[in-house]
Amino acid sequence: MSVLVYVDQQDGKIKKAALEALSYGAAIGSQANLPVSALVAGQVPKEELDRLGSFGAGKVLHASNGELKSFDGAVHAALLKAAAAKENATVIVLSHNFHGKDIAPQLSVLLRAGLVTGVISLPDLSAEFTVKKSVFSGKAVARVKVISPVKILTLSPNSFPLTPSGKSAPVEKLEVALPASRVKVTSVEKESGAIPLPEAEIIVSGGRGMKGPENWGMLEALAQALGAATACSRPVADAGWRPHHEHVGQTGLTVRPNLYVALGISGAIQHLAGVNGSKVIVVINKDPEAPFFKAADYGLVGDIFQIVPALTQAVKKFKGE
Amino acid sequence: MKILVCISRTADTTAKIAFTSNNTKFDEADVQFIINPYDEWYALVRALEMKEKDGATVQLISVGGPETDPLLRRGLSYGLDSAVRVNYSGSDPFRIASEIAAWVRGEGFDLILTGKETIDYNGSSVGGMIAALLGVPFISLATKLDLAGSRATVHREMEGGEEICEADLPLVVSCQKGVAEMRMPNIRGIQTARSKPFQVREPESGEELIQSLDFELPPAKAGVKLVPADQPEELVRLLHEEARVI
Ligand SMILES: Cc1cc2nc3c(=O)[nH]c(=O)nc-3n(C[C@H](O)[C@H](O)[C@H](O)COP(=O)(O)OP(=O)(O)OC[C@H]3O[C@@H](n4cnc5c(N)ncnc54)[C@H](O)[C@@H]3O)c2cc1C
Ligand SMILES: Nc1ncnc2c1ncn2[C@@H]1O[C@H](COP(=O)(O)O)[C@@H](O)[C@H]1O
User: Fold this and answer.
1) By the number of CB atoms within 10 A of the CB, which of A8, A121, A182, B70 ranks highest?
2) Concatenated DSSP letters for B57-109?
3) Interface test with B, best of A102, A103, A269 (most B CBs within 10 A)
4) Are the C-beta atoms of residues A156 and A150 closer than 8 Å to each other?
């Protein structure tokens, strides 16, 4: 028996969410006294594979079949199935990110293994296998029991700390025959350099109070000072002020950063649905009655056009720039 | 072209979240139920657009108890062709997907659309499970979907951007914002919804893999700490020393 973790990568770089999944899998391994192996799929440089021992992998399995190049979740699920058989895995962990959400349900069918998505804490192994997941868009937590012998979990981003140990782990080449990819990626449209929202630890987000796209320089300056990603409310994306992939909330992305800074966002329930898993929320709004203040940890009542540049200066000063 | 749209019944987004029976059941008192927004605004409306443009036939399916019927009728009022309900009220996603896959095996569909996730359980599970059960490709989190003959072009979301990909039908696609323009049913649609074919099918007995035990509400926030607007340095200090996030 063992714990198997799918370590997600993009362009050869291990994602932060994947290191969290690995740390989480390693914690289950030490809880249940099981060995932990990490599975990496695709072209990844050796330095990246060598980092995984420090995050809890006892062994790293690396598969680089051509079929893995263009992402088809079915192919990755087949690879995981093969790795799970080889390692006799009883717990399989993935990140609750775009790839994890695609692969995990398909793997669940291949292994007839119960899947709990978006888990936020370690499983309770004392009696049966139960684990907590976030439901109702973060407004409640459900305790779910996995009935099947093999369990699959996808871990919510930013819900498990990274604790590198400095240990190292052997890397093994995993050679298995895989089905041909049936999903062909023809092009990629990506903002280069920007911190992807689901990975961000700090997010600065703007709403209609920003008045127009021409004012985003102010928000970006604050984000840069904080090392943050940028996001927006839905009307802002709908109006074309910002790209759609920045829109958070019920109909957009769900994020769980350590710090979410909201500038000129009223805090409608549909917006909160995407951000209320954030550890700390700062709201800056000129209306003291804005509903967002009820969900906030820190609030500043006032005009963002005055506060934000001053806050950016204060952050820069704090960081010694 | 035959399209199947999977819709699920969920509590309205603004519903108060509370639990009864020792926190094992969602408190439905005074709660309004709706079609899961991703299913209605994106999957269903995209299928409707394909019907209008290329004459596709569109069927709705929901796995649920009789309380789901009004929502299937509402779905039909957009002008779709028929609806089927599988009479199973549980919440195990594998079981739900198995019921839908069994229906698809009998009827045959070229395209199966789901929402990206249900807004109550937030599973993002059922679509991928249907695809794997049927052995057909799955593309998740689509923001755009077009068909040319038997090939689909789909834009899907990835970290910080989008990927454009292609796959042959039959195919399962989970839909989100971008796939279709939101719209409302029109009067004619509402009037004809009652007369559209609607069947109820008994479930096959199937396996369940997970079971929801109980719920809890997240710990209440301590309440907002207000910082004077002219003291941003104080906010920086609190974020560093107290909240420890910078
Ligand atoms: C089914 C459904 C789904 C939805 N999904 C989403 C979603 O996913 N994400 C989302 O964000 N919304 C969503 N919405 C929309 C949501 O209900 C709100 O309408 C939206 O979040 C409001 O955006 P906002 O806060 O930017 O704008 P507003 O509500 O207009 O708020 C602007 C705020 O800026 C403040 N302000 C103005 N000027 C200044 C200034 N100079 N300084 C400081 N503060 C200022 C105002 O006091 C106000 O509070 C959804 C709605 C529905 C019905
Ligand atoms: N009971 C159900 N009946 C029909 N379709 C469903 C049901 N539950 C979920 N779905 C579909 O599967 C999608 C993902 O649901 P979930 O896996 O629960 O997040 C939903 O958006 C629906 O399209």
Assistant:
1) A8
2) EEEEEEES-GGGHHHHHHHHTTT-SEEEEE------HHHHHHHHHHHHHHH--
3) A102
4) no
CB B154 within 8 A of CB B166: yes
pLDDT in tens, A206-245: 999 999 999 999 999 999 999 999 999 999 999 999 988 8
Q: Is the pLDDT of residue B86 over 80?
A: yes
The pTM for the full model equals 0.92
Alpha helices (H) along B135-218: 187-193
The structure tokens listed for A205 are 């987000």
Are A118 and A136 in contact by the 8 Å Cβ rule? The answer is no
What is the token pair recorded at B5?
Answer: 């749209």
Rounded to 5°, angle at Cα A245 from A244 and A247: 70
Q: Which among A105, A194, A252 is the nearest to B160, CB-wise? A: A194
In one-letter notation, the amino acid at residue B110 is: D
- Output the six-digit token pair for A137: 């868009």
CB A210 within 8 A of CB A221: no
d(CA A281, CA A303): 18
Beta-bridge partners for A248: A253
Report the nearest-CA residue for atom 7 of ligand 2: B8
d(C-alpha B56, C-alpha B206), whole Å: 31
SS3 call for A84: helix
Distance CA B88, CA A94 (A): 29
Mean pLDDT in runs of 10 for chain A (321 residues)?
97 95 98 97 96 97 94 98 98 97 98 97 92 91 96 94 93 96 92 78 97 97 96 96 91 91 96 92 98 97 98 96 70
Question: Could you tell which of A247, A263, A271 is best to mutate to test the pocket of ligand 1, judged by most ligand atoms within 8 Å of the CB?
Answer: A271
- In degrees, to the nearest 5, what angle opens at C-alpha A251 toward C-alphas A250 and A253? 80
Gap between the Cα atoms of A35 and A247, Å rounded: 40
For ligand 1, atom 27: residue with the closest CA: A208
B176–A74 C-beta distance less than 8 A: no
CA-to-CA distance for A315 and A264, rounded, in angstroms?
Answer: 19
